[in-house]
């Protein structure tokens, strides 16, 4: 196997770890409330802009931008839950789809109005240069993003499966009425789920802002594996058949999974 192909796979894995981080938030919200958040990608965008603003105003890199983006988006998640989601959950599925889609448009065009529609970017050397390891050249920014995203995703999995908070969230996901009789407040747990999901997207957005232009119960391990696979497949497709066609390959595989395995990569039938 050529060094170029190995480097493409390594780059795909690092990018896939970031994909896994913000997809784990998406699957958490779906698992808790059976709501697909169409504004999830726009939360990632907000995280990128927070990192950009922190750099512009303070001259600080991801060490400051990532925690602030996480905190800011977690706050946004709580506001969105109490201001919108809690009410539309009582309505039909169409109301949920239109509500989160409308939120996505509101966030997107509010950002366009404030920052303009031109591409913005952070300096590529804000994290460091490029590491050479066994013939491979890895950008420090991508290595940092992939490593942090992987650690946080695994930490999120442990939070949901090994802590009292995770048990309470699982109880609400299984039966909110029974959980309430046991003294668990569904509203609080669902708000926490939105805070975690939005905070994860904020962190992911801040991490990729250095190398991207800014413009059942949920399965976190499934999101992790899927994110890593998408990152590798996207990188390999761009290398083997051209960058123009890599999205076609990813979406074709996505549709195939929806058709042959609608319960998800690690979901139960």
Structural class: mainly alpha
How would a crystallographer describe the biggest sheet? 2 strands, antiparallel
CATH architecture: Orthogonal Bundle
* Helix and strand sequence: HHHHEEHHHHHH
Give the rounded overall mean pLDDT: 80
State the helical fraction: over 70%
Question: What secondary-structure arrangement, pairings included, does this model have?
Answer:
Blueprint: H1 3-33, H2 40-58, H3 62-88, H4 93-115, E1 130-133, E2 136-139, H5 140-162, H6 164-174, H7 176-181, H8 186-208, H9 220-240, H10 246-260
Antiparallel strand pairs: 1-2
Helix pairs in contact: 1-5, 1-8, 1-9, 2-3, 2-4, 2-8, 3-8, 5-6, 5-8, 6-8, 9-10
Explain this structure to me?
A two-stranded antiparallel ribbon has the order 1-2. The mean pLDDT is 80. Helix 1 packs antiparallel against helix 8 (186-208), helix 2 (40-58) packs parallel to helix 4 and helix 9 packs antiparallel against helix 10. It is an all-alpha fold. The protein has helices at residues 3-33, 40-58, 62-88, 93-115, 140-162, 164-174, 176-181, 186-208, 220-240, 246-260, and strands at 130-133, 136-139. It is built from 10 helices and 2 strands.
Key terms for this structure?
two-stranded antiparallel ribbon; mainly alpha; ABC transporter involved in vitamin B12 uptake, BtuC; 10 helices; globular; 269 residues; single chain
